[in-house]
């Protein structure tokens, strides 16, 4: 399944790009994520906890940058992970790029996701997967903005000598995700009647 998400960063692309490419700094901003190993400058290992409906899943895997275009502020990453309890896996390719906007930069993300095993059954509804992805992106963007607000000097200069530690990752809220899925279903129902 394929879907698109976006978020804004209050920095111009020239400043936002190096920040977004600093995986050690931004990984803790992703809800439920933990960076466990830096293999090299393009390959990272980690884990992430998400909830699909009533099921809590923890994936451990690898993220690899397949393409990086610093001049055009775009990149493509491939992620592969397996559920810690052996219930299946997830493979994703995500392309992202920055566009300048009045408030700084807009990050556009296109994801192609494939689930396998019983994990695919939990996420059977495309709407639930899209809502989960949107919730993760929104929480990531909020955490990143909070990190930037807490360290204005580090945000203005990526080479600042002592950036503040990133915020601790929190797992995605199952209640807020369920509320979002329900609200989206209600909106779709009423849009179909008008």
Descriptive report:
By secondary structure, this protein is of the alpha+beta class. It is built from six helices and seven strands, in the order βααββββββαααα. A seven-stranded antiparallel beta sheet has the order 1-7-6-5-4-3-2. Strand 5 (74-83) and strand 6 (88-101) form a beta hairpin. The longest helix has 25 residues, at 126-150. The chain starts with a strand and ends with a helix.
What's the structural blueprint in terms of helices and strands?
Elements (H helix, E strand, L loop, with lengths): L1 E8 L3 H8 L2 H4 L6 E8 L2 E10 L2 E15 L4 E10 L4 E14 L2 E14 H5 L3 H25 L1 H5 L17 H20 L1
Helix pairs in contact: 4-6
Structure summary:
This protein is α+β, with helices and mostly antiparallel strands and 194 residues long.
Features:
194 residues; alpha+beta; seven-stranded antiparallel sheet; 6 helices; 7 strands; globular
Tally of alpha and pi helices? 6
Shape: globular
Overall radius of gyration: 17 Å
Report the sheet-strand fraction: 35-45%
Strand order of the largest sheet: 1-7-6-5-4-3-2
Major sheet characteristics: 7 strands, antiparallel
The structural class is alpha+beta
> What is the straight-line distance between the termini?
28 Å
Q: What is the N-to-C order of secondary-structure elements (H for helix, E for strand)?
A: EHHEEEEEEHHHH
Question: Which range best describes the helical content: under 10%, 10-25%, 25-40%, 40-55%, 55-70% or over 70%?
Answer: 25-40%
Regions with pLDDT < 50 over 5+ consecutive residues? Answer: 153-171
Number of strands: 7
Q: Please tell me the overall pLDDT.
A: 79
């Amino acid at each position: 399944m394929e879907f698109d998400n976006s978020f804004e960063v209050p920095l111009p692309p020239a400043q936002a790009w190096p920040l977004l490419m600093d995986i050690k700094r931004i990984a803790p901003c992703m809800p439920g994520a933990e960076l466990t190993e830096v293999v090299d400058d393009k390959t990272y290992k980690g884990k992430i906890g998400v909830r699909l409906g009533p099921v809590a899943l923890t994936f451990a895997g690898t993220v690899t940058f397949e393409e990086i275009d610093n001049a055009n502020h775009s990149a493509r990453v491939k992620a592969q992970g397996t559920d810690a309890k052996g219930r299946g896996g997830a493979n994703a390719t995500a392309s992202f790029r920055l566009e300048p906007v009045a408030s700084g930069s807009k990050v556009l993300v296109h994801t192609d996701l494939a689930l396998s095993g019983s994990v695919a059954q939990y996420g059977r509804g495309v709407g639930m997967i899209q809502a989960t992805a949107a919730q993760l992106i929104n929480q990531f963007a909020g955490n990143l903005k909070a990190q930037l607000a807490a360290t204005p000097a580090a945000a203005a200069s990526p080479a600042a000598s002592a950036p503040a530690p990133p915020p601790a990752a929190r797992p995605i809220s199952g209640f807020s995700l369920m509320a979002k899925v329900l609200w989206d279903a209600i909106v779709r129902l009423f849009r179909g009647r008008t």
